[in-house]
Amino acid sequence: MSRLVSLLRAGLRSNFGLSVALHRIFVEKKDRWYIPLFGLAAIGILPTLYGYALLIKSLYGFLQPIGQERVLLTYGILLGQFLVLLFGFYYVISAFYFSRDLEMLIPLPFRPVEVMLSKFAVILVNEYLTMIPLVLPVLITYGILSKARSSYWAGAIAVYALLPVIPLAIVSILVVGMMRLVNLTRKKDVMIVIGSVVMIVAVMALQFTIGRSAGRGMGVEAVAGFFFSPNSLLSRIGAGFPPSVWATRAVADAGTASGWTSLCVFAAVSLLLFWGILITADKLFYRGLIGIGEVSGRKRTLSRKEMSHRVSSGRRPIRAIFEREWRIMNRTPIFLLNGVLTAVILPLIFVVMSKMDSGRGDPAAMLRFLTSSTSVYVILGAAVFMVVCGCLNGTASSAFSREGGQFWMSKVIPVTPREQVLAKFAHSYLIALLGFAAAATVLVLVLHLGAPVCLVAVLLALTAGIALTAAGMIIDLARPLLDWINPMKAIKQNLNVLIAFFADMGILAVVWGITTLLVKAGVGGASLIAAVFAVLAVISALCFRFLLIFADKRYRDIEV
């Protein structure tokens, strides 16, 4: 037990790095700008949480007269569990199989189950933090509005503590099994990506099935049951994922026989799956781990011409750096899944949501709502959707951090910083183009957006993408995170990604503010679109120009 506690303590320190951050801020007196940054972030988040609480309050007031208020708890719990199920996959595969500390831990006298449990515990702590803004407002607002007793709050604490265990255990068992199979093949990286995509699609399909089952078969008898049974809608929503029903009843009926029974069932299933993790760790963990770092080579003799071409590739430095960046992304499945897949999964989520209920979620009805005023707003809305899908994936804001300890190569190779930055920009922008294309496909095929409108929106998105990509790279170049152990930390736990997100929101807010002023001034139609394009072009030119100038000055100062 003491060895497991030591492993857990070391993992938490490595994951959060609080001692290092505090030392840099208060002892070395560096990075003090973090303090006002976090203050501004809190100021920006609080209004969002307040609006979320108001929404919950409104829904509670609507559902209470028909006895369906506990459905709010189910929605909040389902949202948290699906979030863990979907994004927990990234954390699990990264922490279990791609952490650099595994090379040191495997030779030490630790059992596989101890290593795996220490990493599982660190992921669990991360998931608790992830669920805070989504689940806690629902539990707290519901408790206050229902004037809940102390038993409710005790049940809420117990359920919150158990909430991520079931989905995270499911993901962990599936990942360990997948990696054992992957390790039997030669093309390990390819199989990891394929297996990851299959699992994520399966999660999306499960969510789609649950959404469809929640709205299917609402005949006269079902409608009557909807109004007169306090658990009917709850059971319908949670039919595809029973743990959400158990958790809801454990909280809503806390202190009663039904509440205790649901809590015991919820805890028992959590413990059963946790026991499954222990068995999986002992049997398969190291078997799936050994050999992951191997690279299979092709046994082929290069001709003299090919050798000459490969040796002289320095004549095209930008192309060479671009190919290097492409390999870094593709050969690390965590980077590939978080960059490329994120650009595609957001449009996919939109498609799933639009198909949840063919009666009320009809894309045609959504389109009629969008076009109720004028096509100008359709163009602007489509452009924003493309930008969100293409640029908010962390690729640009981790362009330098992803190199990690290998950044010293970028400092010594005979390629100017400006050329290296241009190659990295081209790579990040290519990922953004993939997101734009996926979003445009959804708009045309699902929302039936007209080709002229879509083309104008694409033009605006392409221009905005230059500014957001350059801004993300500037932020990562200013303070690259190069001393990471887990590759997930370079892109998912990188503060630069969060800072870049706020910077992107700031740029879009400026454009939106200028657009609002133009509308108030009477500018509309094609003139408004042309003005927005001009504003985006100016901002993009400034950001891109500053990126190149900043690269010339910053590269030599970065310490590895």
Describe the structure.
By secondary structure, the chain is mainly α. It has 2 domains: 2-17 and 69-289, no CATH class; 316-557, no CATH class. The chain contains 24 helices and no strands. The longest helix is centred in the N-terminal third of the chain and has 34 residues, at 112-145.
Question: What topology emerges from the helices and strands here?
Answer:
Layout (H helix, E strand, L loop, with lengths): L1 H15 L1 H10 L6 H30 L7 H27 L4 H4 L6 H34 L4 H13 L2 H18 L5 H28 L4 H9 L3 H6 L4 H11 L4 H33 L14 H8 L5 H14 L2 H22 L8 H8 L4 H17 L15 H6 L4 H29 L5 H28 L8 H5 L3 H26 L4 H30 L6
Helix pairs in contact: 1-6, 3-6, 4-6, 4-8, 4-9, 4-12, 6-7, 6-13, 7-12, 7-13, 8-9, 8-13, 9-16, 12-13, 15-20, 16-18, 16-20, 18-20, 18-21, 18-24, 20-21, 20-24, 21-23, 21-24, 23-24
Summarize, please.
By secondary structure, the protein is mainly α. Helix content is 77%, strand content 0%. The protein folds into two domains: 2-17 and 69-289, no CATH class; 316-557, no CATH class.
Distance between the termini: 36 Å
Number of helical elements = 24
Number of strands: 0
Please indicate the count of domains.
2
Average pLDDT value?
76
Shape: globular
SSE topology string: HHHHHHHHHHHHHHHHHHHHHHHH
Tell me the helix content: over 70%
SSE-based structural type:
mainly alpha
Q: What's the Cα radius of gyration?
A: 26 Å
Strand content: under 5%
Q: Mind describing the biggest β-sheet?
A: none
List low-pLDDT spans: 214-230, 294-299, 306-314, 357-368
